Amino acid sequence: MIKSIGAREYIIEVGDWMKGKKASQSKAVMTDLVLPPDTNFLGSIFGGNVMAYIDKVACICAMRHARSMVVTASSDSLDFISPIHAGEAICLEGFVTYTHKTSMEVYVKVEAENLLTGERRLTATSYLTFVALDESGKPAVVPPVIPETEEEKWQYNGALERHKLRQQRREERKQREKEE
Ligand SMILES: CC(C)(COP(=O)(O)OP(=O)(O)OC[C@H]1O[C@@H](n2cnc3c(N)ncnc32)[C@H](O)[C@@H]1OP(=O)(O)O)[C@@H](O)C(=O)NCCC(=O)NCCS
């Protein structure tokens, strides 16, 4: 079926798919051991390595939700809260919090685990936007998210405001580009 949204036409599947997918269906977790080559001169993991892990986990979440190719459109926040040291595990967990038409917001939480004690601490959080693509590389419609847990509902309820801010930033950037 071909559905028209705005000026574009999108090929979508009909049926249960467009009724929505549970946030938990997009959940992805990843754990890795931080070794000395991954760290800086302070013995803690390079920020760029953490960013790469976040992007990878978020990409898996987005692909699980859309079941299509996706691209990272933006990362509007990444807060490093505490370092992760060599010998600790880096533990990432993410899920799709919200969708618009073709874009998906993904939240990723990063924790450090002391493998001797099991103690965990929050080290970073990030919100990223991914866009689903069809076979010709054009943005493709994605199903809405069905939040179930308290955390999923909390993230879902805050997502519209973040979406508006992102759109505003994008418009401002386009305006600046026109003026240059
Ligand atoms: C992301 C991309 C596909 C959007 O293409 P576009 O021609 O701008 O498409 P549109 O204007 O129709 O926007 C499509 C969706 O992307 C969203 N979008 C585009 N740029 C965005 C940005 N910077 N931040 C958040 N969302 C963005 C739009 O809001 C829209 O969402 P919606 O359909 O849910 O309303 C395109 O900009 C691109 O390919 N960027 C490069 C991606 C990339 O190389 N990533 C790194 C490697 S994976």
TrEMBL record:
<dbReference type="Pfam" id="PF03061">
    <property type="entry name" value="4HBT"/>
</dbReference>
<dbReference type="GO" id="GO:0009062">
    <property type="term" value="P:fatty acid catabolic process"/>
</dbReference>
<feature type="region of interest" description="Disordered">
    <location>
        <begin position="157"/>
        <end position="180"/>
    </location>
</feature>
<dbReference type="GO" id="GO:0005829">
    <property type="term" value="C:cytosol"/>
</dbReference>
<dbReference type="InterPro" id="IPR006683">
    <property type="entry name" value="Thioestr_dom"/>
</dbReference>
<dbReference type="GO" id="GO:0052816">
    <property type="term" value="F:long-chain fatty acyl-CoA hydrolase activity"/>
</dbReference>
<dbReference type="InterPro" id="IPR040170">
    <property type="entry name" value="Cytosol_ACT"/>
</dbReference>
<feature type="compositionally biased region" description="Basic and acidic residues">
    <location>
        <begin position="168"/>
        <end position="180"/>
    </location>
</feature>
<comment type="similarity">
    <text>Belongs to the acyl coenzyme A hydrolase family.</text>
</comment>
<feature type="domain" description="HotDog ACOT-type">
    <location>
        <begin position="24"/>
        <end position="136"/>
    </location>
</feature>
<dbReference type="InterPro" id="IPR029069">
    <property type="entry name" value="HotDog_dom_sf"/>
</dbReference>
<keyword id="KW-0378">Hydrolase</keyword>
<dbReference type="InterPro" id="IPR033120">
    <property type="entry name" value="HOTDOG_ACOT"/>
</dbReference>
<protein>
    <submittedName>
        <fullName>Acyl-CoA hydrolase</fullName>
    </submittedName>
</protein>
<dbReference type="GO" id="GO:0006637">
    <property type="term" value="P:acyl-CoA metabolic process"/>
</dbReference>
